[in-house]
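Exercise 3.2. Students should predict the tertiary structure of the chain below and write it as structure tokens, then compare their answer with the key that follows.

Predict this chain's 3D structure.
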Amino acid sequence: MTQTVVSINSDELETLIRQVVKEELVHLMKTPTISLLGDWEQEGPDDPEGDRLLLHEALDVLRKHGDNPDAWTKWEDFEAELEHAEATCCKNF
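Answer key:
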């Protein structure tokens, strides 16, 4: 096996690193963001009894807090909070 030695100066190395990082960032920006909301594999098995229980719990919460507007979150605020949580989560990977 032959080995090749390539010498480059620090400016050329910096240019090469910047180019590779730029190409990787462009590639990542073109890749669609994966979200739990779009991943149906996390849905789990069909569970009618569990679904009924969840529905009853949700209806209890609605009865308890339905007439208090301060107890609810606007959909836009929820989406913003979810996006923030996903962005924070993905920074750690």
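Discussion points: The radius of gyration is 25 Å. The chain has three helices and no strands.
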